[in-house]
Amino acid sequence: MSSPSAPAPAPVSVSHLVLRAKQLEIDALKHLAARAELVDVVGQLIHALQRERGATSIYLASGGQQFVDVRQAAVAEAQPLEAQARALFATQLEPAQGASARMLSMMAWALMGLDVLDGLRAQIEQRTLSAHDSVAAFSRLIAGLVELIFHVADATAHPGISRLLVAFLHLVQSKEAAGQERAVGALLYASGRSDEAQQQRLVHLIDAQENSLRVFEEFAEPALRTRWEQHLLTPGVARLERLRRTLCTARPGAALDAQLSDDWFEVSSAHITAQWELQQQLVQALRQHCEAQVRAAEQALLDAEGLLRQLRDNPPPHSHAVERFFDAAVQPGSVPLPAAVTEGLSTKLDTAAQAQASSLLDLLQAQSTRLASMEAELETARRTLNERKVIERAKGVLMSRMGLTEEAAFRALQKTSMDQNRRLLDVAEATLSLPDFAFPKRT
Hints:
By secondary structure, the chain is mainly α. It is about 80% helix and about 0% strand. Helix 8 runs antiparallel to helix 10. The chain starts with 13 loop residues before the first helix and ends in a 10-residue tail after the last helix.
């Protein structure tokens, strides 16, 4: 006896497909709106940890004599944001959030860093950690959070939102380089002694800020670019440049004025705050863009339902002829129509059918044009992110094969780019293609 066959699936229809596609688009946009909240909280946590890192650097470099209250205030600011980020990570486990495996893995990596934060603070409180090691520990933690933002930007499939996220990501990267610069400079000034390795680190961090800000300016809205350009003309930036020159041009081992540590922290913090304010405006723009896109998609869904309802309520004209032919109340040939009327009716019905077909064709053509435009914008955002990936991988190759620091690896790529008059991306790609024997042996 044969087993009963499975019920046949319900037949698919054009309306089902069109409406379901639009609903999925709305769901994806709502997921993006939720990701905007995640990006906002992670960005706030990064900002708080950056300030804690800078205050900790001065606290440790001064032997616990300076910035005691400032550091404690920074810890108090970061702790609730850490709890908020953990709560948002937990919500991403829900299937309805649509988080990818890669995104959850990046959250796990960031969470590993947050889990050791209490132990790190205890070491700092007991001053069993050097200022240099504390800067490195905070920087590793923040790097994981920045990488999470990078993945959110890389996974977004909407061009307008992707552009905002690319601008946001590179602003966060610039701000992180500025935060590290603040911590390293504070360490040097508070210690009262110049150090060649730290000077090289400062030069690298300044270059990293400039590179990230160039991408930010390319993708940011004109109003934000103008605001940043105005900030660069302020007296505070001029003071920062003078203090930078003092640090970067001092002879290795030369004495530094320890009293300038407060001034350095103040002006570098103002520089970071200016970027933080731009970051907040970008988050607001991101939220507004997501909300606008959801509203537009929901309106389009209503319009699509209206269009399909109109097609159902006004079937093609030839269907009326079929109904009339099979209507038993109407005898064939009992109501003959003049040829002129028949021709006119046929023309009128054909015109109506053509109009309905044309409206559907116009809708499909408009959608095709919109998708092509979206894809072009999205490709620009993807290309920028992919270029960053290639350069980061090339730096990693130089670091592992030649034993270079991250700063030295980037400077080597940058110098080769300038010496050979080639794009940094081209140099990075060439580096990745070299075999192992092309690199000098590590000793």
